[in-house]
Amino acid sequence: MIVVTGGTKGIGKAIVEGFAKAGYAIATCSRNEPELKQLQKEIKEKYEVEVFVKQADFSKKEEVIQFAGFVKQTGKPLEVLVNNTGVFIPGQIHNEEEGALEQMMETNLYSTYHLTRALIGGMVQRKSGHIFNICSIASITAYPNGGSYAISKHAMLGFSHCLREEMKEHNVRVTAVLPGATLTASWEGVDLPEDRFSKPEDVAEMVLAAHKLSERSVVEDIVIRPQLGDL
């Protein structure tokens, strides 16, 4: 089974579809329950795989832990965990909205930390598994309107690299995914042509391809940008 957090939109939804097409059972979450139910219906009908969904607000630790318990209750061994949930509030460190740092650290970083800790035990025990952390180009490139978002994504990349070192001896693979501008809800309303963005499906294909490698190899970082470069 694969767990994808934030699976109803953008990159998360594309990853859900890609792995469902490959025959994986899916577990996912979102803050929007109607969207989850619609996704569950669509994926089940289209790919004939099991789909488990639960509403959760990943800015709240208790809801992250509740989702981890929900995943465990399915009774299915976890093969792949994709930490995808995130929030982007544009701004600059010196003048951004009060609380922006806390909100983005809680949602983008702390949820990844707590969910990984809650679910990784089974992978370690079986000596098999793959964790993908959806970081960002903002994890390696500072830009003027990135503010606390870039801080949270820099931290997430650091988390991925630390976890990679820890998991080597347990045969659990860890991959950081760093997408550039990708056509998702975060870019809604921007007056730019679609072909200026990467496609969510392209990111999903790279994730699936990295996972399909033999367990003797791991893609540690995936950097994927629009062909014309960063926005």
UniProtKB/TrEMBL annotation:
PROSITE patterns, sorted: ADH_SHORT (PS00061)
EC numbers: 1.-.-.-
Gene3D superfamilies per the UniProt record, alphabetical: NAD(P)-binding Rossmann-like Domain
MF annotations from Gene Ontology: oxidoreductase activity
Domain of life: Bacteria
The entry's keywords: Oxidoreductase
Record's GO cellular component terms: membrane
Family: Belongs to the short-chain dehydrogenases/reductases (SDR) family.
Protein name in UniProt: SDR family oxidoreductase
The organism of origin for this protein: Rapidithrix thailandica
